[in-house]
């Protein structure tokens, strides 16, 4: 076992035991930490690895949330299955978007705006569909049971969210060292050069966006059955899209643990400052704080906080600091020479 | 048998003719030098061959198969690899990871790709910096990386675009040696160069082009003395002054 | 289809379109000179709206008269943002450029929220309720005035960029940053000025917009997106394109209400955006990438 893996195993053990010691409110914060870490990680697959920036990822969250909820309320389908159906829809939409973007050569800012357009169009359309709650949104009934993906108290949600987060970390870890993942990174660095080396950029771009969308949409179902209220402005809106990209960017784009670190730093900050400032009547101050932190981190720590954390932890954990990506002990040993 | 046969190739960009009725052949296992003043159409030719631009008309036959309509990645998979005039390393990943991208076109096993890549890296003299970020490499080493990466795709034909530009004489000699070794392993080479030392040392034959069409073809010694070539590089007045 | 209604919508669309063009002009200028997409553009406009609102409420000065002050204030805002933040991120990869400006947008929007609350405000400025009749169509006077000012300001900027010394320097920096540095242009300062100018135009648009719609902190986001659509429609960095794109979008949005509920008219705008991006990404009049 590499030192880093031991370190992570320790942290995981702590996280597994926390519910024994923490009360409901604090557990709720952890649920949000894991939730946003998962979302950020899913987004990271597209933007961190292939380099195409999506500012409309809330689209997939919404698709997941509304699909599983609609199927549950109208057909009694368990959200566990509805979640997968939502995933299929999300993939379909992502492939459509990807086709338009990648086939037509939309890159950089154009691609960003395409993703925004898709999210906004969906938001507006859903706002006008009666069956999906239109402008008032949808309330979910609280009928706790495993089958219904609804639970009493925060503890079950805590473990499910933790499971999601760990799952996303594993997915990204596997992806990063896989052939497909390496092609994606190559595309991010220089798509033309990658193509000249035999990489079918279109195919891997599509895989990235589809995988990213699928994973993101699963979180939508979780959200629906945790918050019990859906509204198109929340679920498809820019605010969510921005929220979910903040943590990976601050934590470290294109790295395995960056989004997780970002969430562990930003989410508690957000939750606590929101509670503190809103109670005092300072509506919006926590968001200003947010914005300021985001600007400062980008200006002074452009590689993300994890880059500096790695450097600081390196002596203890023997990380490979010569590449941005942690590679595992064998390579680490080679790199030392 | 010729590995590459180009017939009556034409490429225009708007009103500008980049390639005009260009025809030539490259024999299997041979090295063909491609020279011409800036803007003559040499890189455009590479772009057409490697699938980045579609020619307006003409044929490009690679080992008997037409390259027309092929995407760049398909051209590479078919065995034709190229380097870029302005090198394009994958900056934030290591040298090894760079070369592995090329190797993985031929290998699905990460382990085998890594082994093959390390071999090429050692051969190219990049061994000590295999795990360094490509961004940290100086230009001469980036050029070697570019070549090593392309070689990792196990090409039958390698298009080298000005790999010697910006190198000092020692570096030039070293790269000439490397290219020769590549050729000895059976890889045919089409070499764009301004550095005459390289052209003279490596090419069996040289093709000179200007304004998109051939102005001379022959052995290096012949082409260098050709009037039209001298005129293209140095101008009519120089030519007149000579006679 | 009622033809007077259609005519009315057409004219209202053109009038609003002129204002869109003014907003987009700023965005296009900023992109043209620095290659940066100002994701906080709409929010800057909203700050301008608030400033002109308070000048009106506290001092009784009409937005059309306080225009200069508002523009100057937002110019300063833009200048400061450029010099402190944007100048440092000019060479960053795009993902890292997007975030700071989005964050600044958030800061601006929530500062407005913090200072002035979420409630909508609709000041009764002169003309804000007046209408006139133009060939059977009912036109808002304030819209007409806003349009006129927008056109005047737009052309003033065109002339400034074309004829003035500073304008030439801006165009040089937009064309080729490196070359501009080599001929002695202080590109940093030009960037600051350009961002300030781009911000100022959107601030001015805000003042003109005040009589036309209820003011609230959350208005900015939609206008940022509208500005994007106009700029892409007309061509990135193409200033005439911003005006043309604005007019087209204004008309399209307005006319779409003939067969769509007003709340869906943005779908039309986004639809146009997607079509243009796919089939003519350089914009109708051509722009830089």
Count of all domains of chain B: 1
Low-pLDDT segments of chain B: none
Which structural class best describes the helix and strand composition of chain B?
alpha/beta
Say which CATH homologous superfamily of chain B is assigned: P-loop containing nucleotide triphosphate hydrolases
Percent of residues in β-strands of chain B: 25-35%
In helices, the fraction of residues of chain C equals over 70%
Percent in helix of chain B? 25-40%
Topology at a glance:
The complex is a heterotrimer of chains A (337), B (243) and C (289).
Chain A: H1 3-17, H2 24-50, H3 58-75, H4 79-103, H5 108-126, E1 138-139, H6 155-177, H7 179-189, H8 191-196, H9 201-227, E2 229-230, H10 232-235, H11 238-251, H12 258-279, H13 285-300, H14 305-317, H15 329-336
Antiparallel strand pairs in A: 1-2
Chain B: E1 2-13, E2 16-27, E3 31-35, H1 42-49, E4 57-62, E5 65-66, H2 72-78, E6 80-82, H3 95-103, H4 110-123, H5 139-151, E7 157-161, H6 169-184, E8 188-192, H7 196-202, E9 205-210, E10 213-218, H8 220-225, H9 227-234, H10 236-242
Chain C: H1 3-34, H2 41-59, H3 63-84, H4 94-116, E1 131-134, E2 137-140, H5 141-163, H6 165-175, H7 177-182, H8 187-209, H9 220-234, H10 239-256, H11 265-279
Antiparallel strand pairs in C: 1-2
Concise overview:
The complex is a heterotrimer of chains A (337), B (243) and C (289). Helix content of chain B is 39%, strand content 26%. Chain B is an alpha/beta fold.
Descriptive tags:
heterotrimer, A: 337 residues, mainly alpha, ABC transporter involved in vitamin B12 uptake, BtuC, two-stranded antiparallel sheet, 15 helices, 1% strand, disordered C terminus, C: 289 residues, 3% strand, globular
Folded structure, characterized:
The complex is a heterotrimer of chains A (337), B (243) and C (289). With 337 residues, chain A is mostly helical. Chain A has one domain (3-11, 24-330): ABC transporter involved in vitamin B12 uptake, BtuC. Chain A has helices at residues 3-17, 24-50, 58-75, 79-103, 108-126, 155-177, 179-189, 191-196, 201-227, 232-235, 238-251, 258-279, 285-300, 305-317, 329-336; strands at residues 138-139, 229-230. Chain A has a two-stranded antiparallel ribbon. The two termini of chain A are 21 Å apart. By secondary structure, chain B is an alpha/beta fold. In chain B, 39% of the residues lie in helices and 26% in strands. Chain B contains ten helices and ten strands. Chain C has eleven helices and two strands. Chain C has one domain: ABC transporter involved in vitamin B12 uptake, BtuC. Chains in contact: A-B, A-C. Chain A binds chain C through residues 47, 51, 53, 55, 100, 104-106, 108-110, 112-114, 116-117, 120-121, 124-125, 127-128, 238, 242, 245-246, 249, 253, 282-285, 287-288, 290-292, 294-295, 298-299, 302, and chain C through 37, 85, 88-89, 92-96, 98-100, 102-107, 109-111, 113-114, 117-118, 217, 221, 225, 228, 232, 261, 263-264, 266-267, 270-271, 273-274, 277-278, 281.
């Amino acid at each position: 076992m590499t030192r880093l893996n031991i370190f992570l195993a320790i942290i995981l053990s702590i996280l597994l035991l926390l519910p024994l010691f923490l009360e409901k409110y604090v557990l709720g914060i952890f649920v949000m930490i894991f939730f946003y870490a998962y979302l950020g990680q899913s987004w990271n697959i597209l933007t961190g690895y292939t380099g195409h920036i999506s500012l409309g990822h809330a689209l997939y969250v919404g698709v997941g949330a509304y699909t599983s909820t609609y199927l549950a309320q109208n057909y009694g389908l368990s959200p566990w299955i509805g979640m997968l159906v939502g995933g299929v829809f999300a993939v379909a939409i992502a492939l459509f978007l990807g086709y338009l973007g990648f086939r037509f050569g939309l890159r950089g800012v154009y691609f960003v705006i395409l993703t925004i357009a898709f999210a906004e169009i969906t938001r507006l359309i859903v706002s006008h569909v009666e069956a999906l709650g239109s402008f008032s949104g949808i309330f979910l009934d609280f009928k706790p049971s495993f089958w219904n993906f609804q639970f009493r108290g925060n503890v079950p949600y805590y473990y499910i969210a933790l499971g999601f987060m760990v799952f996303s970390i594993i997915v990204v870890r596997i992806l990063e060292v896989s052939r497909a993942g390496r092609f994606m990174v190559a595309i991010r660095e220089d798509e033309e050069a990658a193509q000249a080396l035999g990489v079918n950029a279109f195919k891997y771009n599509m895989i990235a966006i589809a995988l990213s969308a699928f994973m993101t949409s699963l979180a939508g179902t979780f959200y629906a059955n945790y918050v019990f209220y859906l509204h198109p402005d929340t679920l498809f809106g820019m605010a969510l899209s921005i929220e979910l990209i903040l943590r990976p960017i601050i934590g470290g784009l294109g790295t395995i643990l960056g989004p997780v670190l970002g969430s562990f730093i930003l989410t508690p900050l957000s939750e606590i400052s929101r509670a503190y400032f809103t109670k005092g009547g300072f509506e919006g101050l926590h968001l200003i704080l947010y914005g300021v932190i985001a600007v400062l981190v980008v200006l002074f720590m452009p590689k993300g906080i994890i880059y500096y954390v790695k450097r600081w932890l390196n002596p203890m954990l023997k990380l490979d600091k010569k590449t941005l990506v942690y590679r595992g002990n064998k390579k680490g040993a080679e790199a030392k020479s | 048998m010729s590995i590459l046969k180009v017939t009556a190739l034409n490429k225009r960009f708007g009103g500008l003719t980049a390639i005009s009725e260009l025809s030539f052949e490259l024999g299997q296992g041979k090295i063909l030098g491609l020279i011409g003043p800036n803007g003559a159409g040499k890189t455009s030719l590479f772009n057409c061959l490697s699938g980045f631009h579609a020619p307006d008309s003409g044929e490009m036959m690679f080992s008997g198969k037409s390259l027309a309509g092929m995407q760049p990645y398909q051209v590479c998979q078919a065995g034709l690899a190229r380097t870029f005039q302005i090198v394009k390393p994958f900056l934030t990943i290591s040298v090894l990871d760079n070369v592995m991208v090329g190797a993985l076109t031929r290998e699905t096993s990460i382990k085998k790709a890594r082994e093959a890549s390390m071999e090429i890296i050692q051969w190219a003299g990049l061994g000590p910096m295999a795990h360094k970020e490509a961004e940290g490499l100086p230009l001469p080493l980036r050029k070697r990386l570019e070549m090593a990466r392309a070689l990792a795709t196990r090409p039958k034909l390698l298009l080298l675009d000005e790999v010697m530009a910006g190198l000092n004489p020692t570096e030039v000699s070293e790269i000439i040696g490397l290219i020769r070794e590549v050729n000895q392993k059976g890889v045919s080479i089409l070499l764009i160069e301004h550095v005459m030392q390289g052209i003279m040392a490596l090419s069996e034959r040289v093709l000179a082009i200007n304004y998109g069409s051939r102005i001379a073809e022959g052995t290096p010694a012949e082409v260098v003395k050709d009037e039209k070539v001298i005129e293209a590089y140095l101008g009519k007045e120089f030519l007149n002054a000579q006679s | 289809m009622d033809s007077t209604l259609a005519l009315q919508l057409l004219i209202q669309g053109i009038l609003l379109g002129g204002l869109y063009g003014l907003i987009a002009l700023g965005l296009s200028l900023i992109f043209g000179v620095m290659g940066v997409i100002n994701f906080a553009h709409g929010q800057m406009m909203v700050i301008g709206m608030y400033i002109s609102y308070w000048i009106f409420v506290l001092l009784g000065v009409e937005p059309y008269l306080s225009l200069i002050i508002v523009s100057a204030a937002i110019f300063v805002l833009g200048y400061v943002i450029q010099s402190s933040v944007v100048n440092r991120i000019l060479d960053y990869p795009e993902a890292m450029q997007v975030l700071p400006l989005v964050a600044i947008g958030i800061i601006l929007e929530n500062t407005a929220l913090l200072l002035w609350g979420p409630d909508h405000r609709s000041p009764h400025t002169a003309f804000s309720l007046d209408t006139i009749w133009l060939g059977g169509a009912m036109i808002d006077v304030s819209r007409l005035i806003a349009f006129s000012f927008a056109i005047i300001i737009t052309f003033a900027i065109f002339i400034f960029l074309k004829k003035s010394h500073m304008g030439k320097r801006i165009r040089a920096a937009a064309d080729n940053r490196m070359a501009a540095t080599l001929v002695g242009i202080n590109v940093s300062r030009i960037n600051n000025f350009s961002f300030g100018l781009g911000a100022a135009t959107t601030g001015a648009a805000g003042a003109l917009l005040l009589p036309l719609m209820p003011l609230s902190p959350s208005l900015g986001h939609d206008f940022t997106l509208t500005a994007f659509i106009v700029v892409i429609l007309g061509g990135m960095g193409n200033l005439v394109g911003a005006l043309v794109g604005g007019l087209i979008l204004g008309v399209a949005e307005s006319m779409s209400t003939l067969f769509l509920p007003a709340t869906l008219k943005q779908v039309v705008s986004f639809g146009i955006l997607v079509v243009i991006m796919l089939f003519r990404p350089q914009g109708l009049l051509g722009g830089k990438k």
